[in-house]
Amino acid sequence: MSKVITIERFILDHQPDYARGEFTNLLYDIALAAKIIHQNTSRAGLVDILGRAGGINVQGEEQQKLDVYADDVIFRMCDHTGRLCVMASEEQEEIIHIPEQFRKGSYALVYDPLDGSSNIDVNVSIGTIFGIYRCKDWELRGRLEDVLQPARDLVAAGYVLYGSSTMLVYSTGQGVHGFTLDPGLGEFLLSHENIRVPEPPKYYSVNHSYYSRWSPGVQRYVDWLEGRGEAGNNQPAPSMSARYIGSLVADFHRNLMRGGVFCYPAERSKPQGKIRLLYEAGPLAYLIEQAGGYASDGRQSILDIVPTELHQRTPLFIGNRSLVQEAEAFLRQEEQEMAQA
Ligand code: AHM
Ligand code: MG
Predict the structure, then answer these.
(1) Would you say residue 251 has pLDDT above 80?
(2) C-alpha 238 – ligand 2 centre gap (Å)
(3) Ligand whose nearest atom lies closest to the CA of 111
(4) Dist CA 130 CA 112 (whole Å)
(5) Do residue 21 and residue 168 come from a single domain?
(6) Most exposed among 31, 186, 203, 254, judged by the fewest C-beta atoms under 10 Å?
(7) Mean of the pLDDT values across residues 282-304?
(8) What is the pTM of this model?
(9) Contact of 184 with 38, CB cutoff 8 Å
(10) What is the DSSP letter of 56?
(11) Is residue 240 part of a domain?
(12) Which of 112, 115, 208 to mutate to test ligand 1, by most ligand atoms within 8 A of the CB atom?
């Protein structure tokens, strides 16, 4: 039998001394929130029997929708611990202040409590995404600028995938590590140490039904991924299969494990695409770089974009470096053609 290492043990053994207090405990808090959310998502199929989400359950109590519930769990896990100065969530319009009665800490947490929530009712994998920044000014209580930082300045990021098993995958800048929840023990156990995105890549993931909404450069890139159309700028397309779940965490995780690229490009009527920069694209971009891959909006690294709004969107190409760089090459070529026309 190989060594059994809990996430708590792993975090403790791998944090530098300076990060052994607040930061380590913040990661524990997130792991605990993940277990609580797991417990509820795994019972999602029972809502019709035991009470519908958003309706009244058998005890006559109002039930929350699962994404609102997950948002609340993370907030309640983190608001009073003295580790955070501010939070931002996909579910909340404004930044979330630490209530006045609690001490404030030196970190800022951004999160998407339950991404891919349209998949909940059909029993398809969903996920939580999180990123942690240092607060800009440790003296002050949290402000918007504490979360409007480029993803390159993240000190940690990760996700929880509620799939065939529940997994927590995170990085603090020293590689990407994955833990699988043993539901019997209630512990996340180290299952994937030092994940690297493999070569050659196996999958490309894009919602092909939007083909007619993309610019010619994106269309040509997707043609290239599919082994059709003109040759790529740098290399022939590797032979890959299509996979698209419609849950970013699940699509990202599969491609991280098997190699590939996930694309959510700009559309004519949605020039910023759909994916949110702060708590979706940014943390995953940090993870993919830690795993040897790359993430781009088609022009520049996602890590370099300085957010100006909390719920800002960005086009996203993320996965094996060569595949994402090829997207950038196709879009550069498109720009040159437009400039010449
Ligand atoms: P959500 O934050 O409302 O759940 O939307 C984000 C999700 C991602 O998980 C996924 O990659 C994408 O939306 C799928 O969008 P589409 O159905 O347009 O392909
Ligand atoms: Mg989301």
Answers:
(1) yes
(2) 30
(3) 2
(4) 6
(5) yes
(6) 186
(7) 98
(8) 0.94
(9) no
(10) B
(11) yes
(12) 115
